Amino acid sequence: MFAPLEICIGLRYTRAKRRSRFISFISLTSMLGIALGVTALITVLSVMNGFELELRTRILGMASHATITGLDRTLVDWREQAKLAQSHPRVVGVAPYVDGQAMLTLGAAVRGTMVRGIEPLEEPKVSEVASFMEEGSFKDLEAGRYRIILGRGLANALGARLGTKVTLVAPQAKVTPAGVLPRLRRFTVAGIFRVDHGQYDNSLALVHMQDAAKLFRLQGKVSGLRLKVDELYAARSISREVARTFGGLFYVTDWTQHHANFFKALKTEKTVMFVILSLIVAVAAFNIVSTLIMVVTDKQADIAILRTLGLTPRRVMGVFIVQGFVIGLIGALLGALGGIGLALNVETLVPRIEELFNTQFLPADIYYITQVPSDLRWPDVYAVTAVAFVLTVIATIYPAWQASRTDPAQALRYE
């Protein structure tokens, strides 16, 4: 079907001739339509990948890749277990933590919070919280000084600033001669962080691990160990391997369980967007159907002559498949090049457009992420280009089949 003769004739039909310039113009618009569709699809997927990467970086900058804790939600021999975890070849960092729920009060303002006790020297091994500090210093957390670092949303809700004294109320009560009283402790605000994620900015408070252990009555124990591994998507299997080295039964959780719904929603949104934008490519690809049908109608006499010269219906079909093949291939390749170029320069082009039109696409007072990120992934480029090309080839089959059924006698009757 694709011998040199069919390729030569198909390529010749693709080029413009004096009496078929309109048909060639339609071929050009179909080609450009495919290119624009592919460019748009690659760019949009890259931008969505960029947002996903940005959100994942922010979320996992606060949440560790995995956590291990005991059946009673505490670890006693945590120092030895931390050494065992650190000895695993795929574990990058290990840090102990103490956590618990509490209330923060400042004047009449009361807010529920998740208190996380950390070791300031060990925490950077498993999270990026130090890079999210807006005010104060991460190193100001010192054992026995009862200092606290608040999320930006939580600090605003309480009206707290650096140096402000806040009262932390733990749920564990203490029994005194006067009765059962809640456990209270005054903390000094030593810093404020901002992750731009409500789960952390509005409800997380960081204190020194020893202060948290005293507050929640865990002297000598911790709530668990936080792990950072070398491969994000292997966190589940690696953390379970680490837990097995401890001996006994432990609760093991990883980032996919803590934020599974969020990342599943992002994946679903990306898939839906791929399908929707693929329809643009499909419309452009199936414009080739009308183009080739017009070509077949225009070339009836030529087809009839080729048939009388011995060209089989199968080889006639090959002539028009080659024409659609060329249109689709050029369109898909141009679109891939355009999409790659645009995706790699989105972060530069968008600020220029905002400056030109004196506007901002993602205002800081509305959106957490104020810049349009882009993360070009080659599997997406290959998939989009392949889909566009396959749709184009499929679109050529019917017109080519119609051409192969041309009756030479009928076509040449009035020539």
Descriptors for this entry?
alpha+beta; 20% strand; elongated; 13 helices; 2 domains
How many strand units? Answer: 10
Helix content: 40-55%
| Molecular shape | elongated
Widest β-sheet, arrangement of strands: 2-3-8-5-7-6
Q: Compute the CA-based radius of gyration.
A: 33 Å
SSE map:
Blueprint: H1 4-14, H2 21-60, E1 66-70, H3 78-86, E2 91-106, E3 109-118, E4 133-136, E5 147-151, H4 152-158, E6 165-176, E7 179-193, H5 198-201, E8 204-208, H6 209-215, E9 224-229, H7 235-246, E10 250-254, H8 255-258, H9 260-298, H10 300-308, H11 313-357, H12 378-404, H13 408-411
Helix pairs in contact: 1-11, 2-9, 2-11, 2-12, 9-11, 9-12, 11-12
Question: Would you give an account of this structure?
Answer:
This protein folds into 2 domains: 4-58 and 262-411, no CATH class; 65-255, no CATH class. Helix content is 53%, strand content 20%. It has helices at 4-14, 21-60, 78-86, 152-158, 198-201, 209-215, 235-246, 255-258, 260-298, 300-308, 313-357, 378-404, 408-411; strands at residues 66-70, 91-106, 109-118, 133-136, 147-151, 165-176, 179-193, 204-208, 224-229, 250-254. Helix 1 (4-14) crosses helix 11, helix 2 (21-60) runs antiparallel to helix 12 (378-404) and helix 9 packs parallel to helix 12 (378-404). The mean pLDDT is 80.
Quick structural overview:
This protein has 415 residues and is an alpha+beta fold.
